[in-house]
Specification:
Number of strands: 0
Order of helices and strands: HHHHHH
Helix content: over 70%
Strand content: under 5%
Shape: elongated
Number of domains: 1
Largest sheet: none
Number of helices: 6
Distance between the termini: 6 Å
Length: 167
């Protein structure tokens, strides 16, 4: 059996990849059909051009990265040599998207939410959105970082070039 860390990263990669794919597809659907966006603060936060452009670009990228993570997870489970490189590349892309998202949130999304904290009518909604964005910014890079740390080490036995080991 392969290294347990690789198995855990593989299973987490499959789950993370599916989650990212579903989330990106949903965001793109809202981008293509703005009437799907709920009224209120969340809809208002998506109105600035920079935010709309980032939503489009980042979700097109993550729509490809999600299946890539899932595929690399399957490859890691099977002991395929190519899977480690796919994990590294996809994780780096996701970290870049997470950084870009943090910058867009800091520049365009969080300022109106912080102002909303001062108004009693919007305080609770603004606080909930700030907490949700903070959680997303903290957890979005978590799996890609862990995956990079695990696959950067020497390959466990069975990960030879052009070799596939079945468990």
């Amino acid at each position: 059996m392969h290294d347990k860390r690789h198995a855990l990263i593989a299973l987490a990669g499959i789950a993370f990849g599916l989650l990212i794919t579903i989330g990106s597809a949903g965001e793109l659907a809202v981008w293509l059909f703005p009437s799907l966006m709920p009224d209120g603060a969340l809809g208002e936060l998506h109105r600035p051009v920079a935010v709309r452009l980032w939503v489009l670009v980042s979700n097109v990228v993550t729509l490809g990265a999600g299946p890539s993570f899932a595929l690399s997870g399957i490859g890691l489970l099977r002991g395929s040599a190519w899977a480690r490189g796919l994990v590294r590349g996809t994780a780096r892309i996701m970290l870049a998207v997470a950084l870009g998202s943090a910058l867009v949130c800091a520049g365009w999304v969080l300022p109106p939410l912080v102002r909303g904290l001062e108004d009693k009518a919007t305080h609770a909604q603004s606080l909930a959105l700030i907490v949700s964005i903070a959680a997303a910014m903290l957890f979005a890079p978590l799996y890609p970082t862990m995956a990079l740390l695990v696959v950067r080490r020497a390959a466990p036995r069975g990960f030879a070039a052009r070799q596939t080991v079945r468990w």
